Amino acid sequence: MRLKILIVLGLLTLSSISNAASVKAVALFNDRAMLSIDGAKAKIIQAGKTYKGVKLISSNTSEAVIEVGDERRTLRLNSTATLSVSLGTARSSLPSSVTLFVDDQGFFETAAQVNGRSVRFLVDTGANIVVFNSEDAERLNIDYKQGQLGYASTASGRAQMYRVVLDEISIGGISLKKIETGVIEGGFPERPLLGMTFLRRLDMTRSGGTMVLRQR
What we know:
Elements: E1 3-6, E2 20-29, E3 32-37, E4 43-46, E5 50-51, E6 54-59, E7 63-68, E8 71-76, E9 80-87, E10 89-91, E11 97-101, E12 108-114, E13 117-123, E14 130-133, H1 134-139, E15 148-154, E16 157-171, E17 174-184, E18 193-194, H2 196-199, E19 202-207, E20 210-215
Parallel strand pairs: 1-15, 13-18, 14-17
Antiparallel strand pairs: 2-3, 2-9, 3-4, 5-6, 6-7, 7-8, 10-11, 11-20, 12-13, 12-16, 15-16, 16-17, 19-20
């Protein structure tokens, strides 16, 4: 029997998070630098400004000094600094909570581990289930075709979807097991969505430009 599952894929336009572990200097200028954070598209940052948790302290044509939390590193052109603090995601004193910060993209975004593999999610409280497209599912070695076949109502119309249960999803100090997940055939959504089958199991609070996810 085919299961019909309704998914509302309206993205929450609040903020974007990069839970990065590395920063690369792509281009260096006086008082500004073009940095790539965790392999994402490079962005020019002015000295004194913070982007995705990375503060540019100073820069010239030879090197840039960056800061994350209490840790500072010096970058030269095309060099990469790996930091002990996750960028764009600050953990509170409790290991089971993560604080997400707003950036200029307008969406929540976070790096995570799915069954021990790295993935980047858009956080979407409008999706009632965690969602991958089939290409991402295959990359993450999710055997989705063994799941229950159904259909999802998306912004692009009705799409075939397989319902599976992931062993574990981890974000920072938060780790949840047995997460109900949908895999849609094809390339939609373009990026995995961290929906309510994960988020509803957390306490979520927002104040200004931050959101705290706390494991119950």
